[in-house]
User: Fold LysR substrate binding domain-containing protein from Halomonas ventosae.
Amino acid sequence: MCCAEDSSLSLSDGDFDLALDLNDGHVPGLSITPLMEEHIFPVCAPTLLRSRPPLRHPADLAWYPLLHDVTAWRGSHEHAEWERYLEAIEAPPLNLHRGYTFNRHHLTMEAAIAGMGVAIARQTLIRGELESGMLIAPFAQRVPTGMHYGIVHASGARDDRRVAAVHDWIVEEARRAVGALST
Assistant:
């Protein structure tokens, strides 16, 4: 069965064959095949910059609405990505309790494309939008989240050749994607 779930839901042994999950590498009672580490950074639509002060330094974010993904990773809160990013680059304090919140990463990115504000993007999920120019990254710094995408499964799940085939295909596609991200 294929099913998309909110990152706030717990993974329960036996409810699935394989799950793609963004986590810290620990899912009690289950096995994880690590795929790739996630990095985050701010993005916005180029049109957003036309009507506001320049966005050259993190302190300039004070002039822009912030877009928040409340389901950044399991157990995160609605400002977790912004906090992690700004702390990692040692940015000056900023009021993060403003802007708009969304319950899916793709909705947050759609809001950024629409020019609603500046969002935190996940490197593995945003390449096409950056290459097409729909979004730009105003700052060069990309910050590791400490979270990794991985395939979560019960021990023994890969004994089923069908599950093993899907697992191995996902691993190979992830290797290709990691290679593409590093170019």
Notes: The mean pLDDT is 88. The longest helix spans residues 161-181. DSSP finds four helices and six strands in the chain. The helical segments are 80-88, 105-113, 127-132, 161-181.
